[in-house]
Amino acid sequence: MHHTGSSYRGQRVNGRLEGTGTYTLPTETKYVGEMKDGMFHGKGTLFFPSGSKYEGTWENGISIEGKYTFADGLEYKDEKWHYCDGYDRRFYTEICKGLKPAGKSQLTNLDPPRMIPAGCYDCGDGFYNPETRVVIDYQQRFLRNADDDEHDWIVRTCRKGWDQMVGFRVKK
């Protein structure tokens, strides 16, 4: 499990990661927990750069059970998932803190919403520039090039960094 840009604080046995420690991947995702023979093994938590986390039990590098928690504290559930289910369309922060008064819309779960660079879209894991077709993360680092399907989806559905007027407009 040695990757360029990764680091490990903990015990090594015969050159392999062993015991309890902290392993940081090149993506800045961090694993804190038990390891055996160089693999996640036992109890451990993955902390993602977005602020979300996955707490799990691992066997030889494979998660056998666990719980994912979004950065805002919302816990994902496989069953009986009531968040954004078609009936209740509130953002999780609105469920926790209540709705804003009439006339004040909350545009995203993050409130106030993230500022999007001019000419770009917020596609959920970063900003998309339709001119270059590049997605960068929120720290301005390259994530990926968008293919035609992703480009079409982003342009059709995602929040854009211009013309931020929200509300009803009369068509002429």
UniProtKB/TrEMBL annotation:
Keywords: Cell projection, Cilium, Flagellum, Repeat
Region (Disordered) location: 1-21
Primary location recorded for the protein, binned into one broad class: other
Cellular component annotations (GO), alphabetically ordered: motile cilium
InterPro entries in UniProt: MORN, Morn5
Superkingdom assignment: Eukaryota
Protein name per UniProt: MORN repeat-containing protein 5
Organism for this UniProt entry: Phrynocephalus forsythii
